[in-house]
Design goal:
The protein is α/β, with parallel strands linked by helices. The chain is built from 19 helices and 20 strands. Strand 7, helix 7 and strand 8 form a beta-alpha-beta unit. The structure holds adenosine-5'-triphosphate and magnesium ion.
């Protein structure tokens, strides 16, 4: 065995239970120096739990951790950092009212015994780290002023600052655009050259096959596969994750005739503008269609949704639903009229993490589970939550479980169920399958298609071009707050979408 092949990290027989539920049932895992190792598995398979054990956040019930050939007992997150383990969390965990530089160097500031820090130097180092990631973010800005993707990059810079020998990234690209992901991978390849072992968790098959050297698959808390990426196909990988063949990935689309039927207009948005990011956008949503909204990060897609749904102050524009003009001043108005919005930011989407799954799912549809006198009825609440949970194949320890105990992807399903409970006429879904595994993703796509078939207007904002192409009957492409073009299902390709998204006109795009 050459030195480069020596494992920098080895896990043997790791077990971990939370109460009665077993998250890890004896996992073996080995990470070499200078490799990018994909850790794959369905939502709830145990990926984050396993990595939190290496990062000292959870203690294993059983099993051995071997770092650089020595058995170690990791005694908390600070100890893990000293041992050279860096973890970029799945959920962004930054301190919003501290600056970018303070967040990046939080571990160092905490460890400093001198009682003072050279802030000018910290700012410079933070600027340099972010620059490596292709970002020009002012290190003195407060973190809560940054966009979601910028926050994610700060989180990554924080792990890079540790100069670790094991770097774990738990779905780092879920909130990043293509361009930002490319910059991240460049850095990861540099770190790999320096001999750092990298564990990479992602639900995006294309990334795994392009950048990773080996893959380990977890299923129900066990490692069921480990091998070189060259030795398998994406289908093999998916099969070992879900334990079966997936079959038809995307649901069938509307026929061209139905998709082009102008007469059945459900919602019409006319000349909406917020004076800032949305500059006069008009479009129609037809009954029964899935309308895609594509565009680069920052193009104004989420801002468009927020403008229509009362989450953003607008300067002008009208919204008609089923021919009637609507007055929408706040989100509650939109919901009352039957327009629901799933935010791209799961935390802001308002999951009450310390409340049960059932309470979360019913939280915006209380009248559906209340008695005539307005009392919320527990049994009705549990039934509605169970029904919606079943249809979304939600994996949790019963609907009474606390939302915080669910895996990331399953929290996303709760956010979707919560919106479906309101029985919306028009459903805006902003990055609905972010962080959701391949199997569940396909389930969500089929559910969106079923809703459309029932007459709901479904609008899907997505940064994943294959999702727009595979799922939508029609797509609007937004560029700098305006519609750059519209593509029918048969004209959608990654190239045509990207050209419009980068500001070429429709004629040039064809
Ligand atoms: N703090 C906790 N309390 C109770 N159960 C937990 C806790 N953390 C995780 N679990 C459970 O352990 C199992 C594994 O969860 P984990 O977060 O490791 O999954 P994952 O593979 O990272 O999934 P995802 O792709 O959705 O992020 C799940 O069933 C989850 O509900
Ligand atoms: Mg996870």
């Amino acid at each position: 065995m050459t030195n480069a092949d020596a494992p920098v990290l080895e896990l043997r027989g790791i077990q971990k239970s939370f109460g009665a539920s077993r998250a890890l049932a004896g996992v073996h895992f080995s990470l070499r120096k200078g490799e990018i190792h994909a850790l794959c598995g369905e939502n709830g398979a145990g990926k984050s739990t396993l990595m939190k054990i290496i990062a000292g956040i959870h203690e294993p019930d059983e099993g051995t951790v071997i770092l650089d050939g020595e058995i170690v007992r990791i005694d908390g997150p600070a100890h893990a950092m000293r041992l050279g383990v860096g973890l970029v969390h799945q959920e962004i965990a930054l301190c919003g009212d501290a600056t970018v530089a303070e967040n990046v160097f939080m571990p160092e500031i905490n460890a400093s015994r001198r009682g003072w820090m050279d802030y000018a130097a910290l700012n410079e180092r933070a600027r340099a780290l972010l620059k490596r990631l292709g970002q020009d973010i002012d290190p003195k800005r407060r973190v809560d002023e940054l966009s979601l993707s910028q926050q994610q990059l700060v989180e990554i810079a924080k792990a890079l600052s540790l100069e670790c020998k094991v770097l774990i990234l738990d779905e780092p690209t879920a909130a990043l655009t293509e361009v930002e992901s490319v910059a991240l991978f460049q850095v990861l390849h540099e770190l790999k050259e320096q001999g750092i072992g990298i564990v990479y968790i992602s639900h995006r098959m294309a990334e795994i096959f392009e950048h990773c050297d080996r893959a380990t698959v977890l299923r129900d808390g066990r490692d069921v596969f480990c091998g070189a990426i060259e030795s398998i196909t994406p289908d093999d990988l998916v099969r070992s994750m879900v334990g079966r063949d997936l079959g038809q990935y995307y649901p069938p689309k509307l026929g061209a005739h139905a998709a082009n039927d102008e007469s059945d207009c459900l919602m019409e948005v006319d000349d909406i503008a917020d004076g800032e990011r949305v500059h006069g956008i008009s479009f129609k949503v037809r009954r029964g269609e899935i309308l895609g909204i594509a565009g680069l990060m920052g193009a104004g897609r989420s801002e468009l949704a927020e403008s229509v749904c009362g989450l953003r102050r607008t300067r002008r524009g009208t919204v008609h639903l089923k021919g009637k003009p609507l007055t929408i001043r706040k989100y509650a108005d939109a919901l009352r009229h039957g327009i629901g919005y799933l935010s791209e930011d799961r935390k802001a989407a308002g999951l009450f993490l310390d409340m049960s799954v059932a309470q979360n799912i019913c939280s915006m549809a209380l009248q559906r589970v209340s008695s005539r006198w307005g009392w919320v009825q527990g049994a009705a609440q549990r039934k509605l939550a169970t029904d919606l949970g079943t249809s979304l194949k939600l994996k949790c320890n019963g609907v009474s479980a606390e939302a915080s105990s669910l895996s990331g992807g399953n929290q996303q399903k709760v956010a979707i169920a919560k919106l479906l409970a309101t029985k919306p006429a028009v459903l805006w879904m902003d990055e609905p399958t972010r962080g959701v595994d391949v199997g569940a993703k396909s389930e969500i796509h089929h559910i969106l298609r079923e809703l459309a078939d029932q007459g709901v207007g479904v609008i899907v904002i997505s940064s994943e071009l294959p999702e727009i192409i595979g799922l939508c009957d029609r797509a609007l492409v937004i560029h700098e707050g305006r519609i750059a073009g519209e593509l029918a299902a048969e004209d959608m390709t990654e190239e045509s979408l990207l050209r419009l998204a980068s500001g070429f006109s429709a004629q040039e795009a064809h």
